Amino acid sequence: MPRQLTRRDFLRSAAWSGSGLIILSNSRSVRSAQANEKLNIAAIGVGGRGAADVKGVADENIVALCDVDHNHSAKTFEQFPKANRYKDFRKMLDEMHNKIDAVVIGTPDHTHAPAGVMAMKMGKHCYCEKPLTHSVFEARLMAMVARRGKLVTQMGTQIHEGGNYRRAVELVQSGAIGPVREVHVWLGANFAGPPKPTDMSQPDAPTDRPAVPETLDWDLWLGPASYRSYHSEYAPFKWRYWWNFANGQLGDFFCHYCDLAFWALKLRHPITVEAEGPVHPDSAAHWTIARQEYPARGDLPPVSLTWYNGGGYPALVKEKNVPQWNSAVLFIGSEGMLISDYNRHQLLPEQKFAGFTPPEPFIPDSIGHHREWVEACKTGGPTTCNFNYSGALTEAALLCNVALRTGRKITWDAKNLKAIGCPEADAFIRRQYRQGWTL
After folding, report:
1. DSSP letters of 84-120?
2. 136-148 and 112-121 helices, crossing angle to 10°
3. Nearest CA to 178 among 349, 359, 296, 334?
4. Three-state DSSP class for 43?
5. Whole-structure pTM over 0.85, yes or no?
6. Which of 11, 163, 309, 361 is most buried by a 10 A CB count?
7. Cα–chain-centroid distance for residue 292?
């Protein structure tokens, strides 16, 4: 068992990480560049979702590409024949740090923080896929390293760029439905109802030992994660459903859907978190109901946020005659409700808001999620999903699984990264790295 995380441990790690933030003397200084210059970008993890992220910045100079399986990433390598090719991001950063302005990270979750922290300690701006990290501690550290280095960062919650989210945020923040004290967020709902809490029909870790594909460096793919023998149930596509590498369906989508609630209501750290769902030592929960309580924020009242995935609609969908959208965010205010998904939103009850005139838009339309980050790297401007914002969002997501795996209602001390009176949570708040890997 990993030893308990203490306040002193966190400050020591944070101070150590901060100590490496001075940009190396032979590093490129992006903030002194002209806005029309192209960035020199290195990408880590360039197959699957990572390939889409490289495409999002393809108008810049792609100078290095890193992936542990060059066959899986062959199409991306072919598109950028002049880019240097690597399998180990540590070697790439060591050899090319003076030729790189920024990095894009599209690896599985368990490698986000080691790659991101190393790059940012070298003074590189960073774009990283969601969730920002695999553990709560890593999310806090990524945000701290970025802040101390005054680096431009963006988490890959691409739906954040859409006009629909902006218009929904404007409705909430302009008071269209009154003060909001309750939010419900559901993913992939159906009418079967939630599984029984005793349902444990989740897979055990595979026990057979197939050969590692010749093009895959399995040791590098594992990175900081605990050792597992190669299996197609892990790589290249199914890693998300195992605790050793990710946080299941909740980890996959909480940052997309609850992003809207965080943005509209200016949420940050919950004060309590509890969760129910099947608990398995290896495979992530296939359904979860998690409840979080957030404190008042200035003039904004306390908020209760409930997350549902893998089960039925919340009971209030029928009770309040809410549209049966497959996935949605429902804000319940004192004067009405607002439901939204990625592409649409609706004020409720419909009769009350017939003829309602929405406020004049006050959140500018996005120039594109990747483009926003690229331009900010050149000008020093802001990004909307920087690691300060997205780090807190990721922490909130991962705390749901901490509560689930401990079987406890967590009272959260956000300042010290501690579940008060619950020392067993420490092993899930900060994971132990495999020998040879550090932050």
Report:
1. EEES-HHHHHHHHGGG-SEEEE-S-GGGHHHHHHHHH
2. 20
3. 334
4. strand
5. yes
6. 309
7. 17
Radius of gyration in angstroms for the set of CA atoms belonging to the chain, rounded to a whole number? 22
pLDDT in tens, 278-311: 999 999 999 999 999 999 999 999 999 999 998 8
Amino acid at 307: W
* Peptide linkage before 349 cis (omega within 30 of 0): yes
Bridge partners, residue 127, by sequence: 104, 154
- Say how far apart CA 124 and CA 29 lie, in whole Å: 9
Neighbours of 47 (CB within 10 A): 22
pLDDT digits (tens, 9 = 90+) for 63-113: 999 999 999 999 999 999 999 999 999 999 999 999 999 999 999 999 999
**Distance, CA of 337 to CA of 331 (rounded, Å):** 5
> At 251, which amino acid appears?
G
- Domains of the chain (ranges; CATH) run 7-159+368-386 (3.40.50.720)
The b-or-e profile of 267-283 (16+ CB within 10 A means b, else e) is bbebebbbbbbbbbeeb
DSSP-based three-state secondary structure for 179: coil
Other beta carbons less than 10 A from residue 195's beta carbon: 16
